[in-house]
Design a protein that fits this description.
- This protein is an alpha+beta fold and 356 residues long.
- The chain folds into 3 domains: 7-123, Rossmann fold, CATH 3.40.50; 128-206, ATP-grasp fold, A domain (Dna Ligase, domain 1); 209-352, 2-Layer Sandwich (D-amino Acid Aminotransferase, Chain A, domain 1), CATH 3.30.470.
- It contains 11 helices and 13 strands.
- The chain has helices at residues 34-38, 49-59, 74-81, 101-109, 118-125, 127-136, 184-197, 247-253, 271-287, 326-333, 338-352; strands spanning 7-12, 64-69, 85-88, 144-147, 162-166, 180-181, 202-206, 212-218, 225-226, 230-232, 263-264, 293-300, 306-312.
- Strands 8, 9, 10, 11, 12 and 13 form a 6-stranded antiparallel beta sheet that branches.
- Helix 3 (74-81) packs parallel to helix 4 (101-109).
- It is globular, with a radius of gyration of 20 Å.
Amino acid sequence: MYKNKLNVGLTFNVKPDDEVLSQEFFAPSPATDVQTQTSMDTYAEWDSWETIDALTQALELYNNVILIEGNQEAYIKLKETKPDIVFNVTEGFNGISREAQIPAMLDLLNIPYTGSDPLTLSTCLDKSRTKEILSYHKIPNCKFTTTKYIDQLNLGDIRFPLIVKPVSEGSSKGIYSSSFVSNENELFIEVKRVTENYNQTALIEEYLPGREFTVALLGNDDEIEILPIVELNYKDFPDDLTHIYSYEAKWLIDTKDNPLKAFTCPAKISHSLEQIIRRTALQTFNVLNCKDWGRIDLRLDTDGIPNVIEINPLPGILPDPRENSSFPKAAFASGLTYNEMINKVLYISAKRHGLV
């Protein structure tokens, strides 16, 4: 695999619920961002110690691992330790560039790392820019508009029902059952909630009523492997939950002890639909210049055409099979264990960087 053991840096963010980190790091943000910081889902994108420990144990099977928290001290630690390669799962905290900040440091220090570069990470976090790129390349995605000021909103030919979400969040952050709106009054309320609570632009999309799928990909260039497709079926969702994978569904209802039985992998679909989904996911992965791994979420429109609804160049990787984490679920269905999945990502990246 490797000539010698690699010194692998593991850069990460851990939820403060799991450990009380430095008060300096979690000091209040400037006044313009207070509402964002105090939101109940502020740290939804960050990992638990359970995930970080599982990652560490997987990487330590073949390498030496250096834990580096993705905070303001990260640059100094990276410069001092100079890992051979970094396994990066850092989500960051401040600004729309937050996922790109650690990779940018690594580029500056000339340290190889897993996953996509700063440009791809920043682009994919900005859902409106992502949709503009997809539209330019004629990759299906639903009609949308954006606004930061409700009095400037112009829906044009966009029709209800709609989904309202923050333009630059992940892990269902800012997406609740109330995000599904059927009229102007509900729309105004949700735009106000998003713009005020998250201090950012609201993305407004036409609701897609069809089946929902997620596709995990591993590799680069002409060696990209598409793992078994996962379907998220809403028929068994609680009656009071909208048929979207909202924050309530993902983090409050769908728990380790009582997981939603809503996921099927491999998805039970026709060969023709499977081919279209795979082709759309692969094209999206390449158009956005994703590297090593990623996950593409899609939903069928009224004509049964798969539309891209989310690109995840830093996919969630909860280690417990009881939890509904789509990338591991697809990896398990392909025959990989969790440890094999993690080390395959590292190997793919090391090969790309010429370390193999």
